[in-house]
Design goal:
The complex is a heterodimer.
Chain A lengths: L1 H13 L11 H36 L4 H16 L2 H11 L6 E2 L7 E2 L3 H26 L3 H9 L4 H31 L11 H11 L4 H29 L8
Antiparallel strand pairs in A: 1-2
Helix pairs in contact in A: 2-5, 2-7, 2-8, 3-5, 4-5, 5-7, 6-7, 7-9, 8-9
Chain B lengths: L8 E12 L2 E12 L3 E5 L6 H7 L8 E6 L2 E2 L7 H7 E4 L11 H11 L5 H14 L15 H13 L5 E5 L7 H16 L3 E5 L3 H7 L2 E6 L2 E6 L1 H4 L6 H10 L1
Classes of the chains: A mainly alpha, B alpha/beta.
The structure holds adenosine-5'-diphosphate and magnesium ion (MG).
């Protein structure tokens, strides 16, 4: 380990533009690691929440209640047609003002939703709007006759959705879902804009303090995202394979 | 069953009118089906046979008239569809099995989820049903791995697992190869012989003649003619019935 640190210290001396400072300096290393961890947490939270929004929203879209349907439609239009970065700023700066605060020590006023919380909410709502559309396309691919069969067996609408429509729709939706979730992971960098200490935020503070670390740190950001997205894509295709039905087209 | 209960109607349809938008599909249809009876509905394509049979388990609503099934009034605005569908099984032309579930799972789902029965008991019953429709050994096959005839027999078993009082069949052999039609018809015939009340839309005249207690001929949204098979096929009076029979027999 020391050998490795010495090696990178040497590189930084020999090549002033290639200061891999986080390979030998514990403080910077800590920033990078906590940044990567925050990016992973953000990604997982947003993936999960946006999928829930997609599943629930697509179900609500098939409701007989016109008001509910219009609400979902309005939500989709808003989040799909405006920039996610503006949404994030809006959530944090505009809505953030109205969130109640609590006081842990009697002095500080801490909002109950932190900037991390707002980032998760905002990004999940953004990706969730697309997930609803993606699931809806999958749901429309499930034949009406399959739904009728389940209805005539006495399944309620919820049971039909959960046990018949959704599992089939999901299989159709997976490729498009895959794309959207990959985009979501990459979009988490925008949380930078409200000072969420994720990888990009930490990286920028590093290269602001140490301009010599600019190239190596940018390289690091790229590499980390290639790996993160790679892992996501691999797990998605694993999921896709595990859901394959013998003798069934999709 | 006592002799008198054989005479009580389990399905009564009175003067049913059904529209799809402006299109009137049923123009005053009435008939009754007694407990244990086998009724065949025949008629040209587009005459409203599917619509009629779908009205019997409330997959279609009606605009006027009345339908009563197992004592349940289907025109009641507060109709309990679940209660109705526990009593009425339906088998479709395109089988409509759940493609992501094995044959056994297809049969077991509704009893477990709808009737809230214990999984072990349902599994036993499902195995017995697989045997009854002669599909032993195919328990773990997915629908995509089964032939049309096999899928249709799973679909029949799936409906039977709910222990319905009435079974509806809508042209269940129309999508099958001629060789496999027979295996499905045999299954239905055995069912009928066991006393199940069956309403079938079919083009299998030989089957209808052999199994049906009563045959109804529909054309253009009305019942043109009906009777027991012995007289229906030989003494048809209406020119539309005669023409249809001459084309199909
Ligand atoms: N869901 C529907 N919406 C509009 N028209 C329909 C619908 N279902 C059936 N029809 C029409 O109703 C008529 C009767 O159809 P159907 O009951 O399927 O006849 P059959 O089963 O005797 O061939 C046809 O003209 C058909 O186009
Ligand atoms: Mg039809």
């Amino acid at each position: 380990m020391d050998l490795l640190a010495d090696f990178f210290r040497q590189i930084a001396e020999d090549h002033p533009r290639w200061n891999f400072i986080w390979m030998y300096e514990p403080v910077q290393q800590g920033k990078v690691l906590s940044g990567i961890w925050m990016t992973i947490e953000l990604s997982i939270a947003c993936l999960a929440l946006s999928m829930v929004i997609g599943v629930v929203g697509a179900f609500a879209q098939g409701s007989r209640n016109l008001i509910l349907r219009s609400l979902v439609q309005g939500y989709i239009q808003f989040f799909r047609n405006t920039p996610p970065y503006v949404q994030l700023l809006f959530f944090y700066f505009a809505l953030g003002q109205f969130t109640p605060t609590y006081s842990p020590d009697g002095w500080l006023e801490v909002p109950i939703i932190s900037n991390v919380g707002w980032a998760i909410i905002s990004l999940s709502f953004f990706a969730g709007a697309f997930n609803i559309e993606i699931f809806r396309a999958g749901i429309e691919a499930v034949p009406e006759s399959t739904r009728e069969a389940s209805e005539s067996l006495g399944f309620s609408r919820k049971q039909t959705y959960r046990y018949v429509v959704l599992p089939l729709a999901l299989r159709v939706s997976l490729p498009a879902l895959n794309n959207n979730l990959v985009n979501l992971v990459k979009t988490t960098t925008q949380a930078f804009g409200i000072a969420v200490p994720e990888l990009l935020y930490q990286s920028v503070t590093i290269w602001n303090d140490y301009p010599s670390a600019l190239y190596p740190t940018m390289l690091l950001v790229f590499v980390v995202y290639v790996i993160l997205v790679g892992v996501l894509v691999m797990s998605m295709s694993h999921w896709e394979r595990s859901m394959r039905i013998p003798g069934y087209g999709v | 069953m006592s002799g008198s209960s054989d005479k009580e109607p389990i399905v009564s349809i009175r003067d049913v009118h059904k529209y799809f938008g402006d299109l009137q599909v049923l123009k005053g249809v009435s008939f009754e089906v007694m407990k244990g009876e086998v009724v065949c509905i025949i008629g040209p394509s587009g005459s409203g046979k599917s619509t009629l049979i779908r009205c019997i388990n409330a997959l279609n609503d009606i605009q006027s008239g009345s339908i009563e099934v197992c004592g349940i009034d289907l025109t009641d605005p507060k109709l309990d569809r679940l209660a109705l569908r526990k009593r009425v099984g339906m088998v479709f032309q395109q089988y409509n099995l759940f493609p992501h579930k094995t044959a056994m799972e297809n049969i077991m789902m509704a009893p477990i989820l709808v009737l809230k029965e214990k999984e072990d008991e349902v599994r036993q019953r499902a195995r017995a049903l697989m045997k009854r429709v002669r599909l032993e050994g195919k328990e773990d096959a997915y629908p995509g791995e089964l032939s049309g005839g096999q899928q249709q027999r799973v679909a029949i078993a799936r409906s039977l697992a709910m222990s319905p009082d009435v079974m509806l069949f809508d042209e269940v052999t129309a999508a099958l190869d001629p060789e496999t039609v027979k295996e499905v018809l045999v299954t239905i015939k055995e069912l009928a012989q066991d006393g199940m009340t069956c309403i079938l839309v079919t083009h299998e005249m030989g089957f209808a003649r052999e199994v049906a207690d009563h045959i109804y001929f529909t054309d253009n949204g009305i019942i043109v003619e009906h009777g027991p098979p012995a007289t229906f096929f030989t003494d048809a009076k209406d020119p539309r019935t005669k023409e249809f029979l001459s084309q199909i027999l």
